[in-house]
Amino acid sequence: MLNKLFAAFLIAFAAISITPASAADIPVLTWEKGKEHNIILGGNSQVKDWKIQLTSSNGETLDFKQSKLDPKGYVVFSIQIPDSFESGIYTVVTTGINMPEKIVAGVKIVNLSDYNLIQVPTKLILILLTLILLISTLSIMRMQKYERIEYLRAKPTENLSGIFNLFAKFRVAAVEELHKSLFKFQIVREGELLHKLSPNLWATLPIATIFLGAYIGLNGRLILGVSLIPFVLYAIAAIIGVIDPFSGFTAALGFAFAQSISGNVTSVRSVMSLIAVGIGWVAPGILSSLYQDILHKDNYFHFAKKFVPDLVASAIGGLIFLVAQLLTNSFVDQVAPIAVSTYLIPLILTVAIWARINLYRYLVKDLHQTGKNYQIRILVLPRVLSPRTITFAFLYLGGTVYVWTESLQFAMVSSILLTTPLALLMVRFESPVIKAFKSAQRYIVIEMVCIATAAFISFFYIQSLPLEVTAKGKLLILSTSFVLFFHGFFSSVFDSSARANNLQVPQEVRQMAL
C-alpha cells in the first residue's frame, strides 16, 4: 500500500513539474503477475484526460484502465498483469492533452507468490458468480416443484465373491453411518452407475481411492497449492469423484490423512485447503447430478430440453471444480512462486460429467421394461439444509473472507450476510401470501440468467469506481451478499404463497436435510 501511495505521489509530481524527470528520480516498483495493481492520481484538473501505459523494452504495451472521477478529483488507474507476461523491467509512461510522453516509474514484473484472490478481480468474480448460482439454486429448490427427487435403482447384488463381499459390506456400512440427508441420498444414487458397470469395482474402488488419495498427499505439498499436487493424479481423483462421489470422498480422506502425518497441515489455512481439495473431488459429481435432475422438471422447447439440462449441469460441475482449485491456491501457507490454476482439468471434468450423464441414461432407459426387479428411490426435501451444514458454511465462508481481507470484522459481517439466505431454507413461513405467486411458475435457468446478469451489472459498476483493488474486492463480496439476500427473501415469500392452500408436511419428512 505504501508503494502504491508513493508511486501515486511521484507520478502526480512528474505530471505537473516543468523539469523532466531524470533516471535517478524514477522509482522501481515490484508487481506480481496475475494481480491487479493501481496508481492513484489527483490534484490536477487534466487528470481525467491522461493515458497511462505499461511498456516493455521491445515496445509491447498494456493500457491502464481509468476509473470514474472521485468527487475530490482523484482517479484510480488499474492494470491486471497477465500470467503470460514475461518477467523483467517495464516502464510506466503517461501521456495527455498538451503533455509530452513521460516515463514516471519503473516496474519489475515477478512471478506470483501471494495468491490473494481479492487482488485478482476476474477470479474473484468467477468465484462469487458460482456462489450466487449455487445458493440461489438451493433457494429455488425449496419450491414444491423441485423438492421431490427420485431415480430407478436395480435390485442390488445380494453377495459378491470372496474379498469383494467384504469391501461391499464396508461401503454399505460406511454410507449407512451418514445421517439421512440429501448428501447421503446423492452418494447412494451416484454409485448406481459404477454398480451397473461392475459390482466388484463398485465395492473395491472406495478402498483403492483411500490409498490413491494418500499417495497423492505424500507426493504433493499442499502448503504450496494445487500447482505442486501431482497433476495427473489430481485429475484422476477428480474424474473418479465424478463417476463415484463416494470414492472421491474416500480419496479426500486418504489425502487429508497423508497430508496430516507428513506435517503439511499446521494452520487453519491448511485445513481450509484440505476442505477445498475435498470439495473438488466430491461436489462436482453430486451437484451436477442434482442440477440435471431439477432442470428436467422445467418446461422448455422439446429440442432445448434434450440438451439444456445436461449442458448446464456439466458446466456447473466443471465450474465448481475450478473454484475448488482457486480456493486451494488462495489458502497457500508459504510465500513462494506458484502457478495459477489451469483450466484444463475443469474442461476435462465438464466433458466427463456430460459423458457420465448420458451413459447412465442409456443404462437405465429400459430398466422398467426388462422384467428385472428394480426400486424407485424417492427423497422429498421440504427443508433443504440442516443447522450443521449452515454452521459449516458460516465458518468456511468467514474464514475464506478473512484470509483474503485480513479483517475479522468484515469477515464476520460478510459471512452472516452470505449465510442468511441459507438459514432461510431451514424454515417455512405461513405468511406473507401474495396471490400473484400462487399459480406462477419458476424456471431455474431463467432465474440463473437474470441473477447472473444483475450480479454482472453490479460487478461492472464496482470495477469502475475510483477505489483500489482491495476496497473493490470487499464491495464485490458485499454486493454478492445483498443479491443472495434479496433472492433468498423473494424465494421464501414465493414459497409461502405457493403453499398457502397445501396440507402441512409431516414432521418426519421435514427432518430430511442436507
Task: Explain how this protein is built.
- The protein has 514 residues and is of the alpha+beta class.
- It has three domains: 2-110, Immunoglobulin-like (Sandwich), CATH 2.60.40; 115-147 and 383-514, no CATH class; 148-380, no CATH class.
- Helix content is 56%, strand content 12%.
- The chain has helices at residues 2-16, 121-141, 163-176, 182-190, 192-197, 199-219, 231-243, 245-261, 268-295, 302-330, 344-364, 387-405, 408-424, 435-438, 444-463, 469-498, 507-510; strands at residues 28-32, 36-41, 51-55, 61-63, 65-66, 75-80, 88-96, 99-110, 148-154, 374-380.
- The strands form three sheets. The chain has a five-stranded mixed sheet. A three-stranded antiparallel sheet has the order 2-6-5.
- Strand 3 (51-55) and strand 4 form a beta hairpin.
What's the layout of helices and strands?
Elements: H1 2-16, E1 28-32, E2 36-41, E3 51-55, E4 61-63, E5 65-66, E6 75-80, E7 88-96, E8 99-110, H2 121-141, E9 148-154, H3 163-176, H4 182-190, H5 192-197, H6 199-219, H7 231-243, H8 245-261, H9 268-295, H10 302-330, H11 344-364, E10 374-380, H12 387-405, H13 408-424, H14 435-438, H15 444-463, H16 469-498, H17 507-510
Parallel strand pairs: 1-8
Antiparallel strand pairs: 2-6, 3-4, 3-7, 5-6, 7-8, 9-10
Helix pairs in contact: 2-10, 2-15, 2-16, 3-6, 4-9, 6-8, 7-8, 7-9, 7-11, 8-9, 9-10, 10-11, 12-13, 13-16, 15-16
